[in-house]
Amino acid sequence: MARPWRSAFNATGDGGGRGRLWLCQLNFGGPTLTLPADLGPLGLGEIFDPPLNAPPPAPPPYGSGAHVHLGEISASLLGQPAWSLVIKLFPAMDPKEAMALVEFGSLWFDDRVVFDPMADISAKNFRLNLPAYGPRVYYEIDPARLALRDGDLLVYDKEAGPPTVPAPHDSKNNLLAALERYTGLTLRAPHRLDAATSGLTIVAANRLAASRLGQAFSTGKIKKRYLALTRGPKPAFEKTLVEAVISKEAGRYKASAGGPGYPSRTALTVLGEYGDKVLFLAEPLTGRTHQIRLHMAYLGYPIEGDRLYGGGEAPRLMLRASGLAFGHPGTGKAVTLGGPWP
After folding, report:
1. Which of 217, 202, 194 is nearest to 292 (CA)?
2. Are strands 198-204 and 153-158 parallel, antiparallel or unpaired?
3. Which residue among the candidates 49, 152, 170, 194 is catalytic per the annotation?
4. Which tens digits make up the pLDDT trace of 137-182?
5. Helix H segments across 126-187?
6. What is the pTM of this model?
């Protein structure tokens, strides 16, 4: 279905651009980066498209009570098929439902996921992660959001909501699995966006491409651009470099001026002010978990919709991966997405 916020994209190098990409209407035409005059407050919806949310909770045992069940496997279950453990926990469950849960990737033995419901139980410990919506596949890719596809890689404009890779309770409703269903290939994910972040995501189509792309990411050879919307007022600077140490404390990431942790840097450019909102271009120069979200909060401009780091109310996390520039893992030729780069 056509959406009013579609716009064209630029792609160079080997990769076969697929017509149109769901991008913003920003003009990346020079080092100062300007916005069209008609991109007002309502036009921000053209940049941050609506999220794809998971279905509502299914009836018990899914939607209520404990969603994670773990413990030691009793001797009486050893040698029995994996699905029988699910029935042991939920005697009223239909065996077909129990098998579907195993195939869904919800059952783990000794910290390894089990997909075959008929596999013999030989482990010591189990963990069953019940998806709140049940073993239901609800996410498939939109082919119109494929930016590039060739024998080495795919670039997909990920929606806000689906994770990039499988979750412990769900191996089906993620970008990697959905692309594998669409292409029939075994794919790899050297590049991951947070589930709540939308935008350009690189997926490798073979082992060698995955290795080369992973090395390029780790050495900073892949350039990334993000768009972030925050509350105002507009800052005094047009450009700034945020430098902070990112660490994890009590299970939560934080950014600070110093101390133990990982150094991180993000270049920020103010693109415009729209009512009480400010739109930033963020270019991460390192690749830490939640880096842009942490840096924006550290600067005093938490991203709208970011409940974890103090952002204001919004229908989604207002962060979008809008640009990529990298060497093609097969040919070495330059590939740019998201408009010409200064």
Report:
1. 194
2. antiparallel
3. 194
4. 999 999 999 999 999 999 999 999 999 999 999 999 999 999 999 9
5. 175-183
6. 0.86
The reply to whether 5 falls in a domain is: no
Q: Are residues 302 and 171 in the same domain?
A: yes
- Tell me, what CATH number does 19's domain have? 3.30.2350.10
Q: Is the pLDDT reported for residue 252 higher than 60?
A: yes
Task: Please list, in sequence order, all residues whose beta carbon lies within 8 angstroms of the beta carbon of residue 211, skipping any fewer than 6 positions away.
Answer: none
- Residue 273's pLDDT band (cuts 50, 70, 90): confident
Tokens found for residue 81: 């098929």
Cis, peptide link before residue 61, omega less than 30° from 0:
yes
**What is d(CA 205, CA 192) in angstroms, rounded to the nearest whole number?**
15
SS3 261: coil
Q: Is there a catalytic annotation at residue 194? A: yes
Q: What's the structural domain count of the chain?
A: 2
- Cα 186 from Cα 6, distance rounded (Å): 30
Residues 6+ apart with CB under 8 A from 212: 329
Query: What residue has token string 């413990």?
Result: 71
Residue 292 C-alpha from the chain's centroid: 14
Q: Which of 106, 129, 152 is the last residue before a domain boundary?
A: 129
Same domain, 145 and 267: yes
Residue with tokens 């740019």: 336
Contacting residues for 335 by C-beta, under 8 A, at least 6 apart: 11, 12, 13, 14, 15, 148, 324, 325, 326, 327, 328
The residue ranking higher by pLDDT, 63 or 250, is 250
Residue 298: its H or E element: helix 291-299
